[in-house]
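Re: the 333-residue chain
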Amino acid sequence: MSVPCVCVAREAGEAARQELAAAELVDDAHRIEHADGRLYIPVVDPDAVPEGYEVVDRDAPVRETQTMPADLVDFEPSYERIGEVAIIDEDDPDRARALADAIVDSALPVHTVLNRASKVKGDLRVRDWEVLASPDEAEAAPTEAVHREYGCEYAVDLAEVYFSPRLATERHRVAEQVSAGEHAFDMFAGVGPFVIPFAERGAEAVGVDLNARAIEYLRANAERNDVADRVTAIEGDVRDVAGEYENWADRIVMNLPHSAGEFLDTAVALAGDEAVLHYYDIQHEDDPFGPGERAIRAAAEPEYEVTVETRHTVRSYAPHELNVVLDVRLTRR
C-alpha cells in the first residue's frame, strides 16, 4: 500500500524521526524502512510535515503486530488524535459507529472517540461533540485530553476551548524564531500552544483570550510545563487589555484568521520600536496574501516601516480557500 513518507539521509534519520514523533506525525501503522542510504518514515498527514523535508509516496510495509482502524472497516477511515482522544467527522450514524468501534478495538492508544456535532461557533470558538466511546469509569469529562507537541503538554477540554492539533508544525515554525528575553504577546491565546513554547525558549509571554476556561487551562499548562514564571494569562477582550502593554511587544501572534483584521490597530499599539507580527488569514487562492498585507500597511504606516518577511500557506481551508500567515516586521520610523 502506497503511503506518504518523509525521505531523509540515513544519518539524519533519527533526528527527523524525533521531530516528526514530537509533532505526532509518525504513522505507527507502517514500518520505517532503509534503502539506498535513505530513511523512509511513514507519516499520517503529509500536509503537516515541516518545510525542508521531502515527502514521497512509497509502498511501506504494514506492521504485522498491530491492528489499525483501517483493518476493521470497509472504508478509508479519517480521524485525528489529541492525546488519548480520537476525533472523527462523520454525518452517517452507522459509519460513525463502525469507525468508533474500530478505533477502540485497534492498537491505537485511544480510549475516547468524539464525533463533531457542530461547526466552530461563537466568539469562544467552541463546538458540540457526540461521545461515541469513553472509559466506563473515567475521572475526567470525555472531552478532556492531554496533547503532546514538540516536547510541551497541553491539557484541553474540547467542549469548552478551541484547539487544533493540525497546527502543530506551524506553531513550531514560529516558536523557533523566538529568542530568550523577548516580549511575546498572543492576542488570542487559547490554552497556550504559542505562549508555552515561547516561554520555554526564554521569552516573557502574555496570552489574552475571551474564553475564561481557556485562560484557566493556559495557567494550568504554564504550570504543567514549568514556565509559569514567564507567562501572564489574561481573560478579556485584547482591545481592552492593550493599554497596559502599549509599545511593549517584540513579537505578536494574531491567530484569529476570520477576523484578525479587526484587531490590527490594537496590534500596532502593542508593538515596540521593532516587532514581528504573525498575521493569520483565510483568503481565496487567487490572492491569498494581498488582503492581509494591505490591511497591515493601512494600520501600521506611516508610523512603522512594514517589511513582509514570510508569506506562507499553512493549509488548505476549503475549496479554493487557503489558511495563510504573513510574518511582518514593523520598524518604527
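The chain is about 20% helix and 35% strand.
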